[in-house]
Structures
1.
Amino acid sequence: MEYKFCGNSGLQLPIISLGLWHNFGNEDSFDEATQMICSAFDSGITHFDLANNYGPPPGSAEVNFGKIFSSQLKSHRDEIIVSSKAGHLMWNGPYGDGSSRKSLMASIDQSLKRTGLEYFDIFYSHRYDEKTPLEETMQALVDIVKQGKALYAGISKYPKEQALTAYQYLKEQHVPCLIYQGKYNLLERTPEQEIFPLNEQQGVGFISFSPLAQGILTNRYLNGIPNDSRVAKGGFLTADQITPEIVGKMNQLNQIAAARNQILAEMALAWVLNKPNVTSVIVGTSSVKQLQDNLKTLNNTTFTNDELIGIDTILCNH
Ligand SMILES: NC(=O)c1ccc[n+]([C@@H]2O[C@H](COP(=O)([O-])OP(=O)(O)OC[C@H]3O[C@@H](n4cnc5c(N)ncnc54)[C@H](OP(=O)(O)O)[C@@H]3O)[C@@H](O)[C@H]2O)c1
């Protein structure tokens, strides 16, 4: 594993992190979840990414992570970075959604209880909430860090202007923003325009979520929709996104990957990791095999100009 400093901070993150949005809830195999987490840690993945609402049902990924952590990894607490988040709908009523001080403070206490951890390493505001003053959300993050419930603060999916205000507020309060978590992959390149330059200027790290576009950028859907896939299970990734056009492009990308001696997932992760602005990618996996395949990315994260032009030509109309 390689580790990279996160922005201007002293914290290094593994360039491949593991996310628990899917595949770690109560409807998933606890044994596979245990093996994925242990195998990840054994391979140098020291960073596990959670949120209050991961499951299903919401909260169960934190509960399951807590069980696995306490039975397998407790003695390694100081070698592990665990993040969680609050900001999306989690419980009923006016305080279970959004980014008020009340929501964030209640949510982190619930998340600590569910995981059994004494603190999170990183705590995020999961999204910008235009109904709450930004200063209120940021001051809650500052106080969470000052109370020792988290070591670092981060933000996710904030528009550029609000991200800048957040960075400035946090800096003034001496709790500089560690990291921005945003969607970035071969099919979603928006952060290049606004967030990458801003983060560079402000010394904030960037971690990419859904680096495989939830599985589109893998061999999963090259020949139809498998029964055990994320699309088949139902969720945010739906069958109408697996268009013939996308499948055609993925098959073409797969040929470039094969010429690099990589599977499509490896090449897609390598492409993200090749960007100097990216600190780490958070992969989601449904099996140890996928995880181990993704780790092979580390063998080659560089590209020739011809490969990059070939990839962009295939994706130019996307
Ligand atoms: N901040 C936010 O708002 C936000 C939003 C989304 C995600 N996240 C974070 O980012 C993490 C990753 O997101 P994601 O799960 O969408 O990531 P992803 O890595 O883009 O997609 C994961 C899915 O891709 C497929 N896959 C992975 N490796 C594969 C391989 N080697 N071969 C074939 N298929 C493979 C699997 O699909 P199957 O399940 O079909 O096998 C897996 O479930 C989340 O767990 C979460 O921590 C954060």
Note: The mean pLDDT is 97.
2.
Amino acid sequence: MQRGIWLRSRWVPMARPCMRGIPRRRVMEVNCYQSKELNGFNLPEAELHATQNNNGCRSSRGWDLVQEQMKQGKLLDVSTFRDILSDHEHRDRDPAENPLLKWWGYSICNHGTRKQDAYEADAAPWGTVSAEVLEPAKKLLHYNYGWACGEGAEFQDQLFQSHSWSHFASFRSPSAGEHTGRGGGRPVACTTVKGELLAEASQFLCTAF
Ligand SMILES: [Zn+2]
């Protein structure tokens, strides 16, 4: 399965694994197909077992972290997912070796950098822009414009990270029929592309910002 429903990093596409947790069933989703029906559409170098790409190591690391939590009898809750998204295992592995996208890193948090002073679109260091955890039971979106770990940017080529919030903020979903601001009933932009919070977001924000 390629994309998550509950937990996505969005998304510079292909930025990190996604996890969907439902009672008695968990799915670890990375950026290749895993189902029998679709895995024939993967590029060979994108397969989970192709060790040079970052799909296999991110998926297996995610599973290891989930198993650790379960062995300790801990809940797979919002806090757990945030911690998993913040994981830096494989951070030191050379992203230049990734055959899918050069400079696309191997950790789950995936800061993405070529250690340059400027972002070059033609030689982009692929990585995470923002992190989110969806909590359907409470109709909440927990969102961090920036890496899940909250660290600040180290280099100028780390896309949008100079605007990182460095923390998660929680937003509620509008109730059915609720006026949702300008253009009521249609999606409301809560931030700019650079992560600046817009006035319309205040009606959905549930935590201190
Ligand atoms: Zn991080």
Note: The chain is about 10% helix and 10% strand.
